[in-house]
Design goal:
single chain, about 220 residues, alpha/beta, Rossmann fold, six-stranded parallel sheet, two-stranded antiparallel sheet, 8 helices, about 35% helix, disordered N terminus
């Protein structure tokens, strides 16, 4: 193998996305059209900074079933992502009781998303074991992912981590301690990587953007 080929092979990158950690900053941009985000295109945009070759995108998320309209939009979005080879890793929601109110003792029930952060870490570790990447791009502002970075550094020293923060969110210093690079997303990154209103899905009928995200 030529030195040029070896250099090319050492630049394989996979983007790992904490779906909810990205979704809420997208909501804060106050533009629903930006939620129709092509994560593969976003990965390519991030990787081009270092001339890395994007070979995979893992999107970790969960379906909530309380709001049927939101659930429908989420399923359509995942269909669009899968049409561009983004792999979805599913967690789940559980019903949890709040702490009793200090004044009246009332307890309310709410939904808690579970497993997304764990699935993110396990997906990254599984791929490292299978030598699926040289650089792991971790899109999350969750400082708990520092444990992911430490594990990768300690057990896979040839694999490198690059931490990526959602738009308008700071880089976690805890995660950055184990990373060789960092990248902060901004609104322009998101706008440039939006899906078209119709996404071609092979020979199937094109996937239509939900009307709430239509541009």
């Amino acid at each position: 193998m030529s030195s040029k080929s070896q250099e090319s092979n050492s630049r394989r990158a996979v983007l790992y996305v904490d779906g909810f950690n990205l979704y809420h900053p997208l909501c804060e941009l106050n533009d629903n059209t930006l939620k129709w985000l092509n994560l593969w295109a976003l990965g390519q945009r991030i990787c081009q900074d270092r001339q890395h070759n994007l070979v995979g995108v893992k999107y970790c998320t969960a379906f909530q079933k309380r709001d049927s309209d939101q659930l429908s939009r989420h399923k359509i979005y995942i269909n669009a992502l899968e049409a561009v080879n983004v792999e979805t890793v599913y967690g789940h929601y559980i019903h949890a009781d709040s702490k009793p109110c200090g004044e009246c003792g009332m307890v309310t029930t709410h939904l808690n998303e579970k497993q997304t952060d764990i699935n993110l870490a396990l997906s990254l570790f599984s791929d490292a074991m299978q030598d699926a990447f040289d650089y792991a791009y971790l899109l999350s502002a969750d400082s708990d992912q520092a444990a992911t970075g430490k594990f990768l550094r300690d057990f896979f020293p040839k694999k490198k981590l690059i931490t990526v923060s959602p738009p308008n969110k700071p880089i976690s210093d805890n995660v950055a301690n184990y990373a060789v690079g960092k990248r902060r997303l901004n609104r322009d990154d998101i706008e440039k990587c939006r899906f078209p209103n119709y996404v071609q899905a092979g020979s199937l009928k094109p996937i239509r953007c939900p009307k709430e995200y239509w541009k």
